[in-house]
């Protein structure tokens, strides 16, 4: 299991949001793509209908070109700020439950979930165009925010599994705004809520448009239910036990009746809870090799926190976009 941690005092945005040190292939691709001002990176580029920073795009293209999925792989796919950190912790604890005691020495007590389940495109392939993945043990867990259209072809072709998690766009936006502000450097112009709200509604933020991202996986989960499990943050909050059982059955790691009777599900849920993870020393003071502080991934972890930040006009606008976009799909967020 490769770990990705180190400390750095260099005042730069995370590596995947930097604009320099691009490959020639990426330098040549960028001028042909639509371009907009970024929230943290200087620019975002539209590739296959979704927006990426320059360095991130380089990871996306390299991963599409070189990544070979294996049958036992598990992909955790989310839109940014939908609860990826939580999903990483839950799936890591779930598939590795025979190996570690939940009481002590569990890797989640000592490492950020982002170290244990790295991002495929925005971490692994941003750092190395042809990474050596041989140290990953089976089942390999990879996270990504890639839209369905940009997943490497081999992911579609082999019977690996995709667990998709999304969240109410109002909470997702508010969480993203806070996160982007944490990543911005002191010398950067600040992001007003109104300005970035407008850009989010227009679909211009990393791995957005939000609605197209969600719809892509929603439709795939209906057409291909053995391949894609579609989950909502709100359901995970409300019914964590039944959702965890659903995930374990879907992945082919069902809980035995003995495991259920011993309280294992509750143990995993407790270990991965917001209160537990956010209060661990590693998540209070550690830093990822990509540059973010671990604590940046834990803010409030609540459903409906948007009420404190969005005015009635903003709520009406977001609700109306969501309704229009999801109208024919049967999906409700
Ligand atoms: P808020 O900003 O609304 O608090 P991601 O992990 O995709 O970056 O999403 C981050 C969001 O998930 C943040 O939401 C964060 O607080 C919340 N989160 C992180 N860990 C969580 C957990 N264990 N349980 C519930 N929510 C969690």
Automatic annotation (TrEMBL):
Record bears the keyword Transferase: yes
Gene3D superfamilies: P-loop containing nucleotide triphosphate hydrolases
EC number(s) from the headed UniProt entry: 2.8.2.-
Sulfotransferase domain sequence ranges: 71-329
Bilayer-spanning residue ranges: none
Enzyme class (EC, first level): transferase
Keywords of this entry: Transferase
Pfam families given in the database record: Sulfotransfer_1
InterPro entries: P-loop_NTPase (IPR027417), Sulfotransferase_dom (IPR000863)
Gene Ontology MF term list: sulfotransferase activity
Family per record: Belongs to the sulfotransferase 1 family.
UniProt name for this protein: Sulfotransferase
Lineage: Eukaryota, Viridiplantae, Streptophyta, Embryophyta, Tracheophyta
Gene that produces this protein: LOC113717015
